[in-house]
What we know:
Two copies of one chain form a homodimer.
Chain A: E1 21-22, H1 25-34, E2 38-44, E3 47-53, E4 55-58, E5 61-67, H2 71-74, E6 81-93, E7 101-111, E8 114-115, H3 119-133, H4 146-151, E9 152-158, E10 162-167, H5 175-178, E11 186-194, E12 198-199, H6 211-214
Antiparallel strand pairs in A: 1-10, 2-3, 2-6, 4-5, 5-9, 6-7, 6-11, 7-10, 8-9
InterPro entries (chains A, B): Pyridox_Oxase-rel (IPR024747), Split_barrel_FMN-bd (IPR012349)
Protein name (chains A, B): Nitroimidazol reductase NimA-like FMN-containing flavoprotein (Pyridoxamine 5'-phosphate oxidase superfamily)
Organism (chains A, B): Herbihabitans rhizosphaerae
Amino acid sequence: MTTEPLSPTDRSTIRRGKNRAVTDRRALYSVLDAGLVCHLAFVADGAPVVLPTGYGRDGETLYLHGSTGALSLRLGAETELCVNVTLLDGVVYARSVFHFSVNYRSAVVHGKPKVLTDRDAKLHGLRVITEHLAPGSWDHARQPSKVELAKTAVLALDLGEAAVKIRDGDPVDEPEDVTTEGVWAGVLPLRRAWGAPVPAPDLASPTDVPSHVTTREKP
Amino acid sequence: MTTEPLSPTDRSTIRRGKNRAVTDRRALYSVLDAGLVCHLAFVADGAPVVLPTGYGRDGETLYLHGSTGALSLRLGAETELCVNVTLLDGVVYARSVFHFSVNYRSAVVHGKPKVLTDRDAKLHGLRVITEHLAPGSWDHARQPSKVELAKTAVLALDLGEAAVKIRDGDPVDEPEDVTTEGVWAGVLPLRRAWGAPVPAPDLASPTDVPSHVTTREKP
């Protein structure tokens, strides 16, 4: 595990809201591990593109995957990527609209990915992504065939260049507004929860929902 | 209201998962209105950057705001932006890891923003953004002072170039996998809900949580 603090480069140095910057790598891991999908940005024909996609983390590596034909993954190893994972925890109501905010945890990773070609490395990346999205599923479901593996591009992005911002807690208002009577201020928390599992209508036979689904940690 | 179908340009034409593309502009509005924060991507020094930020929609315009000093908003009117709003609705468990997926609603908008300078136009944009994040708050809280308004950059992005993808429903497996016994497949829905409002500890006097907070539509 790297013990380097976060924000080692110019572009991963947080400029706005420095008080929200977190420099502990464990915070980076914690945000990445708590998210479900990431937002992947790249440059195409000089313009930015950002799309949601699945991912997973193993140590200092973030894995991404996609169809080998997908725009985002045809870009290859020399393409700069930026990945953001954001968890929204609540809306912050202030006394002035200027100070409305959100409570959130956000991680940004910059870098050029490695495009994995080795079969075992690709399978490892896909296992990490699958276990991130649906823990316990790699060994429950059928693993990729040779053809499926060939259709799937797997990228590995080093977590060396990353930044984390976290906002938590109460509204911060101007002193002259705090004394105003009758204006409510506070936080409206946003909760996430799993609903009841919905079995596929075409299950071969009645199948109990497996424990890796029923006991899945809350999102 | 524009009645042009979505995906009118090359880069806003969906290439992968065309069966998930939605070409009704009402779907675009519905996704943008349901989201809470967006992911804003731009190009800085040739590399992509993606950050979460607040937004709001009024008709065919998406409003974004930030500190006038913020990197993302110092870029100005000639900068290409890409905005993504994604709502994650569930994890799709399939019989094969290749077909694991998520149910989601995702909107992508491309374009060069207008940087608003007119006071009334800026105030309108900020009202739209505030009412999106916290409906009912513009008239409840103190509105921006001249100084606060000067510190705030407001961008207007036309929704002309946009795309929507939606995945809903059951897993889609290979025919040879559907007959497999003992492998569960289905959807684990992801729910969002507001928690109980947490009043700021420094309210000037005990203040009832206002109805625009207590009766806020579910997220």
